[in-house]
Amino acid sequence: MHPRRRFFRFSPFITKPGRKGVFFLMSVRIGLVILALGVSGVDSLAEEPSPPSPERSRELIRMVRQDCGSCHGLTLRGGLGSALLPEALRDKSPAGLKYTILLGRPGTAMPPWQPFLSEAEADWIVMQLLHGFPEESR
Length: 138
Ligand code: HEC
Description:
Layout: H1 3-9, H2 21-39, H3 54-72, H4 86-89, H5 94-103, H6 119-130
Helix pairs in contact: 5-6
The chain binds heme C.
Heme C is lined by residues 63-64, 67-68, 70-72, 80-82, 84, 88-89, 92, 97, 100-101, 105, 108-111, 113, 125.
């Protein structure tokens, strides 16, 4: 047999494998699908992030009211930073807002918060902002 043919016989991309190749091929394909899902972001499936613990929620609310509020206004109506009220954010992409929070906006005063927030927490903050951010409870 020609060595090239031998190679193709075991290639996962041919459609008519020899009988022996079928299982190998199926497992390779399943592997590729899983890999593709992993790479292309199962991330986008995580639309509903599991909420942070009540304790962490309080910390995050405090952080947004105090730290973010120092630029975005204590009532989040805007200041140095733009308004973060639901009306202002409604038409923006939640994923875009999340990455603005995590990565900041280079060239503007908006700093990256990635060192302090997980991606799920940033998602949670965006969701809260879109629904009207909770007040700090004392
Ligand atoms: C040092 C000031 C500063 C702080 C602190 C700050 N921001 Fe910002 N932020 C800005 C500025 C300025 C912009 C507008 C950037 C631009 O011109 O595009 C912005 C933009 C944003 C946007 C995009 C709004 C839009 O309409 O696209 C979001 C969301 C945001 N900030 C969230 C936050 C959150 C959440 C925090 C706290 C974790 C925070 N910011 C803290 C200055 C700040």
